[in-house]
Amino acid sequence: MHRTKIKVAEDALDANTTIAHANRADFDREGVAVVNLMSAPGAGKTTLLERVLADRGETRVGVLEGDVQGSMDADRLSALHIPVVQLNTDGGFGGECHLDANMVRSALPDVQLGKIDLLVIENVGNLVCPAEFRVGEDAKAMVCSVTEGEDKPLKYPLMFRTCDVVVVNKTDLLPHLDFDLDLLLHNIDRVNPEATVMQTSARTGDGTGAFRDWLLGVGREVPVPA
Amino acid sequence: MHRTKIKVAEDALDANTTIAHANRADFDREGVAVVNLMSAPGAGKTTLLERVLADRGETRVGVLEGDVQGSMDADRLSALHIPVVQLNTDGGFGGECHLDANMVRSALPDVQLGKIDLLVIENVGNLVCPAEFRVGEDAKAMVCSVTEGEDKPLKYPLMFRTCDVVVVNKTDLLPHLDFDLDLLLHNIDRVNPEATVMQTSARTGDGTGAFRDWLLGVGREVPVPA
Predict the structure, then answer these.
(1) Sheet with B196-199, edge to edge strand ranges
(2) Does position B105 have pLDDT exceeding 50, yes or no?
């Protein structure tokens, strides 16, 4: 009896989980794989998506673009001729620093799940709260720029721990930084030894093929060949 | 009557403002100037403080270091032989992505206001929520790295709007970036034409003297000479 009561309380408290499950059911019914892409502000999420989605092959990709306000990233990605839906957290959502399952759900009527195979949710730039809210995704990935310092996995461990893939970006700047790449990789391994770690320069394209292959393969039984 | 009722409701809702006023009263009683320093993760707040507080002259400076967890930045600043108090938001505060007035208040017994002239509060790395919570400070400043892109003032306008000073940092990397500094300055001016904008490289020290002079002059009637 005691266990049952605890379960009821947890379910009631965690409305986000309930709504994430509803989102998941909708994604499954339409056969859409979903990736939640997160990072600090300016780590290069949009540039990375521009790079890899330009080479998306036959996969029908849509993007749900989360920002406090504005639609600059959505406008950039729309240039790839893919459906992009802007989700701003300032109006009805009070300027939230993250997306949650309910915000994502509010945007689903515009996303047209029946017309896509993969939905990339580009979260609000923030290394704290986005990691706390499941939205019904198949996988979480984060972009970590080498300009942010080696200590970020230790300072924001939940974000690094919750992600399946960590993309270490802006590697083209390494010759110009006092930066110990091995220390960053060690720190990522300390907080999330299960993570798949990739090194990219979204600006030059270096290393982005591996992220493209992973992204397009999410939710598929057979991985996309490299 | 109607106006009075609204006022009562606002006061009751905004406990943060009430506590910020209490903090302010304590700072005033002890004659301590307080600066709330904010930025995205990895923009260089701690490196900038290391640089300018090494040259603090006679000013007795203390630091209140906000992080979700860990004390790496506090350890770095303690090496300057200044009192540093670590305030982690994960334990009693649920992993909050910002400092608020109540968190700052909880740390004041450790800060020993009677022994300092200036308290620098290094907020959690985040461009959204830290801007929403006054903590009783005299001034707010932010660090914005040129690696984060020119669009950040437009995507996180509240942060840029709320700050008295915007420090554009990592200027040593400009030759290695596809970055339009004039566009960033224009975007800062669009959202906050009143801001004092400084350009620094905390790594090389270039331009940091102006920030040092401003920081040490906060709360003083006569500015510190350059």
Answers:
(1) B84-88, B61-67, B118-122, B33-39, B139-145, B165-169, B196-199
(2) yes
Q: State the ipTM, two decimals.
A: 0.89
User: pLDDT of A109-165, one tens digit each?
Assistant: 999 999 999 999 999 999 999 999 999 999 999 999 999 999 999 999 999 999 999
B41 and A42: CB-CB below 8 Å?
no
pLDDT in tens, B157-196: 999 999 999 999 999 999 999 999 999 999 999 999 999 9
Residue type, A6: I
User: Chain B residues with CB inside 8 Å of A124's CB?
Assistant: 128
Whether residues B128 and A132 touch (CB distance < 8 A) is answered with: no
Gap between the Cα atoms of A86 and B112, Å rounded: 47
Quote the CA–CA distance of A122 and A133 in Å, as a whole number: 14
Print burial letters for B43-54: b (CB count within 10 Å at least 16), e (below 16). bbbbbbbbbbbe
d(CA A71, CA B55): 42
Distance from CA of A43 to the nearest CA of B (A): 7
d(CA A199, CA A86): 28
Asked if A62 contacts A111 with a C-beta cutoff of 8 angstroms, the reply is: yes
Structure tokens at B9: 């409701």
For residue A128, the chain B residues in CB contact (below 8 A) are 68, 95-97, 124, 126
Q: Which of A129, A170, A173 sits opposite B97 (nearest CB)?
A: A129
Quick check: A189 pLDDT over 80?
yes
What's the rounded Cα separation, in Å, for the pair A96 and B147?
A: 24
Three-state SS for B169? strand
Q: Where are the alpha helices (DSSP H) in B112-197?
A: 152-155, 157-162, 181-191
B124–A128 C-beta distance less than 8 A: yes
| Partners of B141 in beta bridges | B37, B165
> How crowded is the C-beta side of B196, counted as CA atoms within 13 Å?
11
Half-sphere exposure of A135 (CA within 13 A, CB side): 30
Q: Contact at 8 Å (CB) between B147 and B168?
A: no
Q: How many CA atoms lie within 13 A of B116 on its CB side?
A: 24
Query: Are A224 and A217 spatial neighbours (Cβ–Cβ below 8 Å)?
Result: yes
